Amino acid sequence: MDVGSGSVRAGVFDLSGQLLSHATHKITTVRRSGQRVEQSSEQIWQAVCRCIADALDSAGVAPQSVAGIGF
Predict the structure, then answer these.
(1) 35 is a domain residue
(2) Model pLDDT, residue 34
(3) Which of 4, 8, 16, 59 is most buried, by the most CB atoms less than 10 A from its CB?
(4) Which residues on neighbouring strands pair with residue 21, listed in sequence order?
């Protein structure tokens, strides 16, 4: 997982470090008056969940088989 200011990215790797799949979802940034910038924590969380699901689906990997994920 990598959560940046513009998008969320997730990758699925095998035990040798080979990338099996990845997914990216954009995050909306709202610019307010002055230098205020806002993002929705709900949108970020939803993007994280979608990225993980999409990357696992694309790799054909069951969530239970991934170390560190307890779905």
Answers:
(1) yes
(2) 84
(3) 8
(4) 12
Give the chain's residues under pLDDT 70. Answer: 68-71
Long-range CB contacts (within 8 A, 24+) of 19-22: 20/58, 20/59, 20/61, 21/55, 21/56, 21/58, 21/59, 22/55, 22/58
pLDDT confidence of residue 68: 64
Range of the domain at 41: 2-65
In a domain? residue 61: yes
Is residue 8 domain-resident?
yes
Question: Domain for residue 45, yes or no?
Answer: yes
Q: What is the 3-state secondary structure (H, E, C) of 13-61?
A: ECCCCCEEEEEEEECCCEECCCCCEECCHHHHHHHHHHHHHHHHHHHCC
